[in-house]
């Protein structure tokens, strides 16, 4: 029993250490960017040692990758929650778009996922991350819509459109204008 309690508390401590590193890293990367953030600053912000950082992550880039994955998964979860299975596909796409725009308004998220991420990890790695998270929700909806166009390519193009709109909205543009434009595009796509 003692060994099980110790193992569980060790696992809990590992989880807490990892969470603290991710939270501190997110804050640092948002405020100073990837290039402007050093590992000494990251571990100080987390209240950890460099040893703890390197126990959980190979390097600063690996930590950044984990921060981006957490952000992308949060966005995908918001989209899934907004567009429950069984709803009208066009309405589900629009609800998912609203959820995406709202999720991307989280402080620093657009910068992390759409500016810093591609610059640090490269567009190919970011495309894979998107395919595994928010892009997957878009492909599922387009598949259910039964469009004539090839789904993966259409999803990537729509994803780029969503990202462009999210950057504009993060810079102060009116989300309602983008939702209206998106509504027209998705309705036309559904008529194919």
Keywords:
0% strand; 192 residues; elongated; Arc Repressor Mutant, subunit A; mainly alpha; Tetracycline Repressor, domain 2; single chain; 2 domains
What does this entry look like structurally?
The protein has helices at 2-32, 39-46, 50-56, 60-82, 89-103, 109-121, 123-132, 134-145, 151-170, 175-190. With 192 residues, it is an all-alpha fold. It has two domains: 1-57, Homeodomain-like (Arc Repressor Mutant, subunit A), CATH 1.10.10.60; 67-191, Orthogonal Bundle (Tetracycline Repressor, domain 2). The radius of gyration is 19 Å and the shape is elongated.
The CATH C-level name of the largest domain is Mainly Alpha
The helix content, as a percent range, equals over 70%
Radius of gyration: 19 Å
Number of helices: 10
Give the N-terminus to C-terminus distance in angstroms: 63 Å
**Domain tally:** 2
Beta fraction: under 5%
The profile of the biggest β sheet is:
none
Which class of secondary structure composition applies to the elements? mainly alpha
Unreliable segments (pLDDT under 50, ≥5 consecutive)?
Answer: none
Which oligomeric state applies?
A: single chain
**What is CATH's topology name of the largest domain?**
Tetracycline Repressor, domain 2
What's the helix-strand series?
HHHHHHHHHH
- Average pLDDT number: 91
The count of DSSP E runs of length 2 or more, i.e. the number of strands, is 0
CATH architecture of the largest domain: Orthogonal Bundle
Global morphology: elongated
In short:
The chain is mainly alpha-helical and 192 residues long.
């Amino acid at each position: 029993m003692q060994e099980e309690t110790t193992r569980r508390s060790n696992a809990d401590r590992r989880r807490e250490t990892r969470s603290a590193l991710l939270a501190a890293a997110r804050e640092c990367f948002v405020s100073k960017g990837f290039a402007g953030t050093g590992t000494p600053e990251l571990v100080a912000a987390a209240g950890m040692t460099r040893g703890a950082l390197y126990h959980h992550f190979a390097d600063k880039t690996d930590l950044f990758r984990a921060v981006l994955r957490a952000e992308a998964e949060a966005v995908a979860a918001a989209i899934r929650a907004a567009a429950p299975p069984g709803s009208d596909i066009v309405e589900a796409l629009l609800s998912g778009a609203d959820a995406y725009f709202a999720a991307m308004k989280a402080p620093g998220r657009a910068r992390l996922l759409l500016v810093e991420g591609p610059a640090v990890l490269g567009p190919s790695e970011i495309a894979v991350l998107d395919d595994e998270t928010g892009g997957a929700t878009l492909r599922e909806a387009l598949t259910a819509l039964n469009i004539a166009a090839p789904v993966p390519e259409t999803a990537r193009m729509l994803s780029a459109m969503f990202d462009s709109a999210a950057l504009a909205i993060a810079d102060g543009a009116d989300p309602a204008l983008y939702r209206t434009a998106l509504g027209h595009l998705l309705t036309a796509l559904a008529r194919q």
